[in-house]
Amino acid sequence: MEIFGENYLKSKKTHEISNLSTLSIQFFHSGIKYEFKLAKRQNVISLMPNLIQKKINGFFDLILREQIANDLFNDSKTIRCSKFRITKLKRGSHKIISEKLLSECSIHQINSSSTPKIPEFEWIHNLLVITNECFEKYDKDPNYFNKPTHDSVLTAILLKLNNALSIETPIWLRKQRKLTDYLNLESDNYNFSFSNSITGHIDLLLYDGIGNNLIIADYKPEGYFLRSLPQIAFYALILRRILNIRDLNVKCLSFNKEKAWIYNPEVLMEINKEMKKFGNPKLVWRRIFRTI
Questions:
Q1: Cα distance between residue 2 and residue 189, in whole Å
Q2: Which stretches of 141-217 are DSSP H helices?
Q3: How far apart are CA 256 and CA 151, in angstroms?
Q4: What is the DSSP secondary structure assignment for residue 7, as one 8-state letter?
Q5: What is residue 264's DSSP assignment?
Q6: pLDDT value at position 177?
Q7: What are 171-189's pLDDT values in tens digits?
Q8: For residue 1, what are the CA distances in angstroms to 4, 23, 82, 226?
Q9: Model's pTM, two decimal places?
Q10: Which residues pair with 24 in a beta bridge?
């Protein structure tokens, strides 16, 4: 377990970071390095209701003790959330579906150029400002800063955004072996069993104190948010299962430096209906969604 904080933007000179009470731990899953980083833990968690505090603290302790389902993460047969995409639709359908969901406010879009009118979303504007700062500093002096990477952008947000908790947070569900696995709903069992074994790594975990929402955020610099939306929605559904709290509020956030989408994971139900109009492809996540 390591302390991190300095040089989070990989600049060529040392920068002072105000919050060094942060932890990191590396996992190698299927040969790929994932560095879980946790910051401002007590400050952010103290804003949560007591039950969520207990569950999220227990989950983070589990990760820091490396007591996660490494067998699933390193099993090539395990389903990865990163593979969940909206594909095989007719040309132009992504734009039509996106515009419909935005117009009906099933998805809210926040642009980096203006502060949102809804107070609950003001912190999202701050997140976009931090993301843009990473690129502005590089554009201003590329000899001083390296080009921002996926990790450096997420780490900057983790350290600077008041409500950011962790990055590259591992999550998993283990396929049930017997019927009683379905019935174990009241235990603090972070190896919750369900219909399929699924794993993933949440880019950025935050807490919105105004809306009382855990936020599952994913940085997609290339955009195309609708295409990857099932991946982020499943992160939220799995975390809800892991924490096992009835009526837990979990929202999803897809973002790059220009804009962000915020939505409930249940928006997949609307997307499922719309997809039937544009080819109705048989995708693995659509089958799993019916069971989770």
A1: 27
A2: 150-160, 180-183
A3: 13
A4: B
A5: -
A6: 63
A7: 999 887 654 444 444 454 4
A8: 10, 7, 26, 36
A9: 0.87
A10: 2, 37
Angle at CA of residue 26, ends 23 and 31, nearest 5°: 165
- Residue matched to tokens 């879009």: 109
Pairwise CA distance, residues 156 & 154, whole Å: 5
- Tokens 């350290």 identify what position? 159
Contact 71, 191 (CB under 8 A): no
pLDDT tens digits, one per residue of 18-52: 344 679 999 999 999 999 999 999 999 999 999 99
Are 47 and 207 in contact by the 8 Å Cβ rule? The answer is yes
Taking the alpha carbons at both ends of the chain, their separation in whole angstroms is 33
The pLDDT of residue 178 is: 54
Q: Name the pLDDT band for 194 (thresholds 50, 70, 90).
A: low
Integer Cα distance of 36 and 69 in angstroms? 15
Within 8 A by CB and 6+ apart from 163, the residues are 44, 47, 123, 206, 207, 208, 209, 215
User: By CB neighbour count within 10 A (0-12 exposed, 13-18 middle, 19+ buried), where does 91 fall?
Assistant: exposed
The pLDDT tens digits of the residues spanning 112-162 come to 987 777 777 889 999 999 999 999 988 888 887 788 999 999 999 999 999
CA dihedral 223→233→149→122, nearest 10 degrees, is 80
Cα 95 to chain centroid, rounded: 23
CA dihedral 83, 85, 91, 92 (to 10 degrees): -150
Handedness of CA 225, 228, 230, 234 (dihedral sign): negative
Contact of 69 with 172, CB cutoff 8 Å: yes
SS3 (DSSP) at 291: coil
